[in-house]
């Protein structure tokens, strides 16, 4: 009986201190970065230098980010805005303030477009 009560207590505490977006989506997001002409270029995004096209794992934040490049013929700065992850709203309805606060603090309530295109001629 003690094990059942202990397990129920652990589950209750875990459900009150975690958020839906944190559980289902995580603190990071994989984003595809490509070029409009399908050429390979070097880009810098969120402090990482990668060759586009590629898939990059980004930390979710409430602020947007900028993809930069010095490749000839390409737009030097491409802005990417963050938006609220739809799973976050489920958490507000089902989990209330505890889970939604967790999602906010961890940044999991935010998302970026899954495809970012750097305009190149």
Structure description:
- The protein is of the alpha+beta class and 121 residues long.
- 34% of the residues lie in helices and 33% in strands.
- A 4-stranded antiparallel beta sheet has the order 3-2-5-6, with no helix packed on it. A 3-stranded mixed beta sheet has the order 4-1-9, with no helix packed on it. Strands 7-8 form a two-stranded antiparallel sheet.
- The radius of gyration is 19 Å and the shape is elongated.
- The model is unreliable at 12-19 (pLDDT under 50).
Order of helices and strands: HHEEEEEEEHEE
Identify low-pLDDT runs: 12-19
| Mean of all residue-level pLDDT scores | 81
Give a short account of the largest sheet: 4 strands, antiparallel
Strand order of the largest sheet: 3-2-5-6
Distance between the termini: 69 Å
Query: C-alpha Rg, in Å?
Result: 19 Å
Helical fraction? 25-40%
Task: Determine the structural class based on helices, strands and strand pairing.
Answer: alpha+beta
Query: Could you give the count of β-strands?
Result: 9
Number of domains: 1
Q: How do you describe this structure in short?
A:
The chain has three helices and nine strands; from the N terminus they run H-H-E-E-E-E-E-E-E-H-E-E. It is of the alpha+beta class and 121 residues long. It has one domain.
